[in-house]
């Protein structure tokens, strides 16, 4: 290639993909939901560590559970001209306007751990999430198997109202128990993914269900709410893990501690490392123009008391949960 052709080629490819851009040059803003759960805290810690590994200038804005704060943070990242924006959307709706602003500024957005409504699909580059319908289904199927045909009244602690993972985990669980007429959800209420609300709502379920005597199982959309519910059951003189079955989602260290003590039965793991695959997708997109798949799916694994919960607790306890 002669010099003129070479200059032309590099100008064209430079304009398209910022050829030669290295992770060290990238600045990425992350609009994080807050710190409602142990899982969320771990996701923040792991994201920072993954950014450091790749030498990325990483800016985190904590929205304290408020969508309006997330919208402000995205606008501020757009104004700063960051190279990409990560968004963990607290709820599924209400993103169109702000994501269009990011798109007009040619800033790719990556969704982490939660989805937005399918109508917004063209407004983000990729989503790194688990299959949250599947998580609920795994929990429901585990319960059907464990109840073994006996009548089983279930109380459900839902996540944040309007969050994709709450809607999906509810649906998945209902699918999982659909073929078992002995397993029924008798009460269902949001505990907003927090330990304190999980405990409070469980206390009201216990009161409403004859001191808890008519409850066979608790299904919680996350482990933190289950840890709160376990506390409520113990304070009411009930025996979670034996008299009342428990199944929840996240696989945080404290649920393994409860499992090791015989006070919890099962959890479905959600990896806190959503940012690692997201950084790699953005780097490949920025440096080579590689389009990532629209959905980068993370694994979901069921753990029960048979999986040496104390060893799992030890392996996870220092990971930032
Ligand atoms: O979006 C993931 C969910 O958010 C986690 O399961 C829960 O703990 C967190 O609050």
TrEMBL record:
Record flagged with keyword Signal = yes
Q: Principal place where this protein is found? A: other
Top-level taxon of origin: Bacteria
Domain (Periplasmic binding protein) ranges: 28-275
Q: Which Gene3D superfamilies match?
A: 3.40.50.2300
Q: InterPro entries, per this entry?
A: Peripla_BP_I, SBP_2_dom, YtfQ_transport
Give its localization: Cell envelope
Keyword terms: Signal
Where in the sequence is the signal peptide annotated? 1-23
Please give the family membership noted in the entry: Belongs to the bacterial solute-binding protein 2 family.
Can you name this protein? ABC transporter substrate-binding protein
**Species in which this protein is naturally found:** Ancylobacter radicis
């Amino acid at each position: 290639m002669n010099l003129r052709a070479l200059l032309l080629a590099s100008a064209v490819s430079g304009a398209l993909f910022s050829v030669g851009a290295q992770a060290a040059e990238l600045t990425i803003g992350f609009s994080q939901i807050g710190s409602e759960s142990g899982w969320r805290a771990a996701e923040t810690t792991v994201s920072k560590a993954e950014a450091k590994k790749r030498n990325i200038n990483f800016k985190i804005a904590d929205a304290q559970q408020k969508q309006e704060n997330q919208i402000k943070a995205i606008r501020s990242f757009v104004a700063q001209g960051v190279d990409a924006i990560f968004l963990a959307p607290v709820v599924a709706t209400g993103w169109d306007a702000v994501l269009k602003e990011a798109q007009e500024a040619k800033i790719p957005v990556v969704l982490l751990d939660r989805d937005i409504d399918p109508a917004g699909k063209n407004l983000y580059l990729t989503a790194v999430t688990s299959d949250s319908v599947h998580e609920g289904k795994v929990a429901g199927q585990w319960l059907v198997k464990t109840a073994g045909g006996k009548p089983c009244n279930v109380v459900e602690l839902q996540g944040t109202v309007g969050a994709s993972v709450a809607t999906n985990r509810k649906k998945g669980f209902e699918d999982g128990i659909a073929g078992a007429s002995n397993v029924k959800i008798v009460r269902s209420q949001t505990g907003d993914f927090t330990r304190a609300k999980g405990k409070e709502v469980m206390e009201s379920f216990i009161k409403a269900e004859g001191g808890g005597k008519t409850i066979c199982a608790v299904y919680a959309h996350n482990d933190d709410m289950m840890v709160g519910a376990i506390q409520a059951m113990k304070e009411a003189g009930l025996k979670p893990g034996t008299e009342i079955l428990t199944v929840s989602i996240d696989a945080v260290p404290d649920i393994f501690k409860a499992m090791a003590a015989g006070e919890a039965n099962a959890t479905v793991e959600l990896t806190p490392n959503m940012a690692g695959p997201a950084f790699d997708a953005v780097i490949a997109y920025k440096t080579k123009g590689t389009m990532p798949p629209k959905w980068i799916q993370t694994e979901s694994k069921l753990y029960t008391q048979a999986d040496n919960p104390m060893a799992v607790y030890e392996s996870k306890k220092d990971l930032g949960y």
